[in-house]
Request: fold
Amino acid sequence: MTTLARSPLQSGRTTPHAIAPGFDVEEVRADFPILHQQAHGHPLVYLDNAATSQKPKAVINAIVRYYEGYNANIHRGVHYLSERATAEYEAARKTVQAFLNAARAAEIIFVRGTTEAINLVAQTYGRVNVGPGDEVLITAMEHHSNIVPWQLLCAEKEAKLQVAPINDRGELILEEFEKLLAPRTKIVAVGHVSNALGTVNPIATIVKLAHRQNIPVLVDGAQAVPRMPVDVQQLDCDFYTFSGHKAYGPTGIGVLYGKLPLLEAMPPYQGGGEMISSVSFEKTVYNKVPHKFEAGTPDISGPIGLRAAIEYLNRLGMDNIAKYEHELLTYATQEVSAVPGVRLIGTAKEKAGVLSFVMDGVHPHDIGTILDQEGIAIRTGHHCAQPVMTRFGIDATARASFGLYNTTEEIDALVRALEKVREVFA
Amino acid sequence: MPELRDLYQELILEHSRAPRNYRELKSPDHKAEGYNPLCGDRFTVFVQMDGNSIRDVTFQGSGCAISKASASMMTQSLKGKTRAEAEELFERFHKVVTGQAGNGNQPDLGKLAVFSGVSEFPTRVKCATLAWHTLQAALEGKQDAVSTE
Reply:
């Protein structure tokens, strides 16, 4: 194992060590081959986890094992390889089911990612249940992927997209949200954790409020699943979506969870093979859920890699990960906000994983370039959440987002690099 | 390895802090908005013509240091130039910031040569050329633009 080059901590600064019992970050780092390299002559500090996470060796190996050992099409073949591939694919569904604590494996549909999951619900559940004059309710902190699919639906159905406002800390104003729940509201779509602000939304409360009026709730869990335990039965949400690649799994695979009666009542999303029971030119009988929503040969290596990622997360324990990342975020918040000229965007009481900020007199893009020269990867821009930028009267932010392999030393490196930004622009 | 100071030259930082010709033209002959969705840079370029020559060119908007300094220095270098000269200057500028100029064959860019360091930072080429693309769009919109004079 190559260890991360350490730099001496500034005197008088205390860093939280041994944050979560049984969670050794150096051991964790050893599981991620990509982390042990230099970027522009400095140890790589990867703080762009909200964009995508790195993959542990276990995930990479699982995908290699599939392609080297049992690549075959699933649900079709009568041969050895196909049976094995089918069994692994369906085992992955069960792993996801247990991970989200879904009641049944059939409630887990494999899709390409969160974006596809939301589009699927908008184009199936939405097209059947939303009509002229109806409303879809979202929040002002949504990612574009939880805005645009609903705009498309509303444009087609002459329905209205309602947006619940957020306060200056970046928190949903629950009273306003509640006021917007109306008899015409046909679905609520809300992010669990905001990718631009880090805000954790009170999903269980939101679901209760909506269910009081029999309105189903879809949750965009892309930023939550890698960061905290998620129990869909406890949340009682009707749909939950996430992407594998943000949860230490491969790209190209995501999950739509839906309550079985809803999924059964929904029309198919795409037509093709696998999603049918029988086809004639007169009549086609659709396959059962979840296969009804998985037309065509799917990404088979995707669920297999995702399963390895979930097993990896389970070994570490989602509670431990949440605790560790919370400590990291608290430390980063304290250190970064102490840099002169820095203003945090998104200061909700409940936050996870994301630190968005702006700096007096320096555009985020320039911050990003200077940090990159120091080996530090962050994201700059609008983070696919332009309405959030508009809400805060800015064009862009710099965003550091944390993963389970980040360290307080890396946050110190970030702070030193921000001092360098100040030097360049002094 | 690219050096930060090659990118953030003093002249660039100075222009980004105090951009020249940073104002709206009341009745421009040409006007266009340029937007870089990657980083949120957004500029409007205004052009006043005198026959075939650029009498005045100004800009407004927000963006990173590179895009703002580039817009500022572009406006300085274009006054009095004909359209063809402006096009030709953009072509040379583009070659330099994308590293296509080649060694020992640096096109004469005058002060704009300060942007040659951009070629070492491919993700910043769009920042350096945003104002120029916007200017091009403004000038090309001539046929459709309603003359205010």
Q: What stands out?
A: The domain at 25-47+317-424 of chain A is CATH 3.90.1150.10 (Aspartate Aminotransferase, domain 1). The two ends of chain A are 40 Å apart (CA to CA). The first strand of chain A starts at residue 38 and ends at 39. Chain A has two domains: 25-47+317-424, 59-315.
